[in-house]
Amino acid sequence: MFLNFTGILFFLISLIVAGIFKRKFAQYSQINLKSNLSGREVAAKMLADNGIYDVKVICKEGSLIDHYNPLDRTVNLSEGVYNGRSVASAAVAAHECGHAVQHAHEYVFLQFRSTLVPVTSAVSRFMPWIIFIGFILIRTSTLPLEIGIVLFGITTLFTFVTLPVEFDASRRALAWIDNNRIVDKQEHDMAKNALSWAAMTYVVAALGSLAELLRLILIVYNNRDRR
Q1: Alpha-carbon gap, residue 160 to 206, rounded angstroms
Q2: d(CA 116, CA 154)
Q3: This prediction's pTM
Q4: What is the pLDDT of residues 54-97, one digit of tens each?
Q5: 86 DSSP assignment
Q6: Would you call 96 a catalytic residue per the annotation?
Q7: Among 96, 166, 187, 212, which one carries the catalytic annotation?
Q8: Mean pLDDT confidence for 13-19
Q9: CB distance 149 to 217 below 8 Å
Q10: 3-class secondary structure for 24-62?
Q11: How far apart, in whole angstroms, are the C-alpha atoms of residue 63 and residue 65?
Q12: 3-state SS of 163-212?
């Protein structure tokens, strides 16, 4: 009962945190940088300052779809970030380049997460069906659900490995934009605030996944006790 309530609680918290992040991003997107650099210019400068010349900065359609792709070595920025000259654009562009810097420096958690990506992607396709079948057959056998739990554990591990990757990328981004005077003191605080709320979405997702994993384990444990 408690874990069922915990799952609902984390779902509500995730909605609240995501809503706050979107509001912060929209707010800081309206505040122009005094340096007047666009997201593309910020990204290009950060990459060059770190001696990275084999990573392309690409503009993508959409909103909040910004990411670094280590496979084709591209920093993918949404249109608003790529062309924007705001605090939010600078923060996001620098954060994604922070991942490129991690890649260049062979940051261990990024390497581990990259290794888990194809595994997690494959697992996520059939894991829900195995768990569903596990619930149907739980009165006769807990094995299918146990297999589902192992697979769910892999996806939960991925969410936790993601945390140091995201926090470190933000740390690198904030240090660089500050040291290179891309932002002033007030703009730095706003950029930090935006990236902090973005990071919180990953924290809530990881804790929510852990809560669901514990719920599934408890279901199997209780079912065994009834036999």
Answers
A1: 6
A2: 8
A3: 0.90
A4: 999 999 999 889 999 999 999 999 999 999 999 999 999 999 99
A5: B
A6: yes
A7: 96
A8: 91
A9: yes
A10: HHHHHCCCECCCCCCHHHHHHHHHHHCCCCCCEEEEECC
A11: 5
A12: HHHHHHHHHHHHHHHHHCCCCCHHHHHHHHHHHHHHHHHHHHHHHHHHHH
